[in-house]
Request: fold
Amino acid sequence: MSDQFKKFIVGKSREEIRSNIEKLLRNEVENTVKSTQEEIRKKIAEVIEDAKKISESVRQPEKIPPREQQEVVYYNAPNRGISADEIAFAPESPDFDTDADRAMNDKISEMRKLNEIFYNGYLLNQCAEISIVRQGEFMAEVTDDFGRQAFCGISRPIYGALSNPQLRTYFTWRTDVRRGVYRETDRSYVTLYCYELMNKIGVISAADALGRLLAVWEGCREFAGWLDDTMPRWIKDFYAYNDLSEQYPDLCSCFPVKAAGLSGSVSELNSKNYSDKLDYFMENSSYKLGESVFFGEETKPLLNGAAEAALTALDGYFLERDISLFKLICGRMKRDYNWTPFAGAYVNLDRMDGFRQVRVSPVERYCVKRGEAALELFEPSPYRGFIGYVLKSVEAVLRKRTGFHHKITPNIKMVINDFRNREKLVEAVSAPEFERAITDAVNAWCDKNGIFPKKAKGSAEEERPAAPVKVDIDVDKLSRIRAEAEEIAKRLIVEELPHSDDSIAEIAGRISDEEFSVKIAEYSEPQKNSTKGEAAVGGGWGELALALSPRHIAVISELLKGSAERYCRANNILPETVYEEINTLSLDCVGDVVIEDGEIVSDYEEELKNITSGEV
Reply:
């Protein structure tokens, strides 16, 4: 064993020997890597030298000298020379070169610096909402008396975008406004002043700013009618973002004009005022009450009062079931996703007191949705079928209470179809109490206002068929009636027709026989009260039977069987068109429609069966 090896292992533990061996191996590897890298570098250097020798023998194009590094210029630095704004805006004319003019221009130049920041030589404009506040506060107390008016057509003006003459024109106009003088000027200047007020620049409080906004709206109306379109929303947004409830408890009453979005009828209905709302209901009803034969100038006050009684009763009915009648007959509040605070204006929200939930009116309110400020507006979406059912029910009761010769029956399917997929509403309108609520309310209203059928002689009870009355026929009286009729007939026919005596006697006898038969029928048949059947048997149904075409009669027959839609499809008939034709004829002949919502009106089923069977 060599001395070197002994020195390596003598007096050392196994771990030390292992560690030394690992160091030796690492040193060998590192030396090998270094030697290899050195050889690679030499090879690369040789290749580059060979390439240079080859390139020197080939002619090369002239090299372009390198571009000099441009110095970064900071225009905000002292002794900076000409500014960007001085290049963009021409200097003042010699006429405005007094000490006051130079002082004002220097002030404007200082203001412009508040909007300039640079980074690596590129101009970056700050956020307009921030810049208008910084520059506006800097110029808040400035007054001016500029000798001319410079035109400005910028739709959303900021101070930095206006030239010196434009700015001086604005400050001169603002000086007059603060004195209460509203001179006619360009839209841009009025808009910029509104931006100042909404950012609470040059005012002592939010209430002062709102008061000045209202004053500008009123003072500039003669030449700035566009304010009526933009100012209401700006003022409402300002009211929602600042606590002004003590100074302005009723915001809408402060408006110089009626605020957009308010509806008198809807507002009153929301306050449960159902008086004189018949026109609103007729406009939003699926049942065309105005086309009914019962509707007229005399019956409209009755319908108006009865509708108020019915809706008052329904309000209590639905309130017990936690349902809003207002949403059913008018609509509901819905979020306006197009709303943003102070749309079209530069306003820094950080200067506001903070957003508040405000009920501006019954059809407009500010609220919080999913943690964000939101605006909710009223969306008209009445249930037209429900309103139609209410109006038809009211009309049905009034027809009966006034002794109208035609009766109608409302169809509850109008409401069921309207409330489809609304289990709570379907359950409410399916209850028997719902159908009785309107009838009972209108009957009570009729009792209170003394509306009864003429034949009832003031009785509030419903019409009931009277028992048949036995009548004794006086034959002698009938003979006299027949003789008088014969004599009258002879006189009429002699004057009008050039017939012989035999023809006259024959015609007179025929007329007398007809009148005699009529009188016998009047005295011999039992007397009955006026009912639907009596009104229906009149000549109107006979006229209707003659007016109906074979196609109409076939459709009516299928309606009675419940298979009209299948029949119409098989024969390429549009159901709505043929129904409208039949109803038009029935209105002309019997004074009422016989088909509603694709079904035969139950009151007229018997008469229509007689028509289809040929008995009428």
Observations:
- The mean pLDDT is 78.
- The two ends are 143 Å apart (CA to CA).
